[in-house]
Amino acid sequence: MPLYDAIRPLLFTLPAEQAHHVGTSALNATLSLPPARALARSLFDVRDPALAVERFGIRFPNPVGLAAGFDKGGAWFNALGALGFGAIEIGTVTALGQPGNPRPRLFRLPADRALLNRMGFNNPGAEAVAARLERTKIEPVLGINIGKSKAAPLEEAAADYLRSLELLERYAAYLVVNVSSPNTPGLRQLQDAAPLRELLRALRARAGELAAARGVSPKPILLKIAPDLTDPQVEEAAGIAVEEGMAGLIATNTTVSRDGLQTPDVDALGAGGISGAPVHRRTVQVVARAWTATGGRLPIVGVGGIFGPDEAWAMVRAGASLVQVWTGFIYRGPGIARDINRGLLERMAREGFRSLDEAVGAAHR
Ligand SMILES: Cc1cc2nc3c(=O)[nH]c(=O)nc-3n(C[C@H](O)[C@H](O)[C@H](O)COP(=O)(O)O)c2cc1C
Question: Are 263 and 285 in contact, with CB atoms under 8 Å apart?
Fold first, then answer.
């Protein structure tokens, strides 16, 4: 959007994490009152029934969500929800509040249209986030992404995730089990078949009990995986997700690969996950693999390097019924959901699809 084109160079003069806070806090202040949010919605919402997607019992007004890690502590989701997103995913929230890794821990790689981050799940903890959600009227479709506290040993991961689930599930439209961040030591080992199955089973069982106690249906739980899994590992994880009753798969998190990056001396920036353009190709492959492995039965959320409608359309055709953005928001600004939604409608019309649903997985037919 033109306004963001003017503001972005100013934000880009600040260190990346500070710019994120300044930008999002300013947005939040501007949109703190419901009438301001209604005005924003009138500017950014693309209302068209052909864009609406219904999955795991939730009606998403459009398929473009904001990915986890943007609003880690659940402080900004109502303002962000007014920018035309079909859903906002907060977190990753951990049972214990934690500061994350030392700064600097977020870097822009403009030559690659990418970010490098090693935030390390900085968040106020599940109890504090629950308290915040309790006193906030939640406006958007809200996903809550949970992860393992750094202090919890890997063998006790399930108990740690369960604590977050117990505190947060009532506020969520859907929950996400994050076992794919590269920035918590050992976390990604939870993607191995045996611990993954055990973790998902425990979470699903508890979500079922909690819902039964309230006389409501259990909250859908999605599994978020890494792009660095091999194809057989993707297929295995997708199969386990189906068998353990997961509502869907989110593909993917950031990559630890530095292959093909143009940024000079990228190794000097240190460890972390790369997001944005460099992950896009692999993410589309992961979506396609998961779709094929599950015969299109498991809803997939495609996330990785979506900057505009072209990348979103590739995800949908590969099998994603929903998409999310993170890095694209930084580079394209607050109009990104509107621009993608408009572009999706154009592509649907051009290729003869009456609804987005009809286009999901079209590349396989
Ligand atoms: C700074 C930053 C922080 C992130 N934090 C989280 C997180 O806490 N939990 C999570 O599941 N994903 C996190 N992600 C990953 C994104 O949700 C997304 O999966 C990934 O960045 C790929 O999408 P993108 O290319 O559109 O950024 C983070 C990404 C970035 C750039």
Answer: no
Strand 87-93 to 142-146 pairing: parallel
If you take atom 23 of ligand 1, which residue's CA is the nearest one? 304
Tell me, yes or no, if the pTM score tops 0.70: yes
Nearest CA to ligand 1 atom 22: 304
**Best residue for ligand 1 mutational test, from 18, 77, 275 (most atoms within 8 Å of Cβ):** 275
Neighbours of 33 (CB within 10 A): 10
278 CA to middle of ligand 1, Å?
A: 13
| Ligand 1 geometric centre to CA of 225 (Å) | 11
Contact 319, 296 (CB under 8 A): yes
Pair of tokens at residue 181: 């961040």
Contact yes or no for 93/245 (Cβ under 8 A): no
d(CA 64, CA 66): 7
Report which of 356, 357, 238, 355 is spatially closest to residue 298, judged by C-alpha positions. 238
Residue with tokens 């299109």: 296
355 carries an active-site annotation: no
**Which member of 149, 180, 181, 275 is catalytic?**
181
- CA 252 – ligand 1 centroid, Å: 9
* pLDDT exceeds cutoff 80 at 2: no
DSSP conformational letter for 143:
E
Q: Which of 230, 235, 150, 244 has the alpha carbon at shortest distance from 195? A: 244
Q: How far apart are CA 108 and CA 327, in angstroms?
A: 9
The burial class, CB within 10 Å (0-12 / 13-18 / 19+), for 9 is: exposed
Distance (angstroms) between ligand 1 centre and the Cα of 216 equals: 31
| Integer CA distances (angstroms), 243 to 152, 203, 236, in order | 27, 14, 10
Q: Inform me whether the pLDDT recorded for 1 exceeds 90.
A: no
pLDDT value, residue 3: 83
CB of residue 255 inside a 6 A radius of ligand 1: no
Cβ contact 91:66 at 8 Å = no
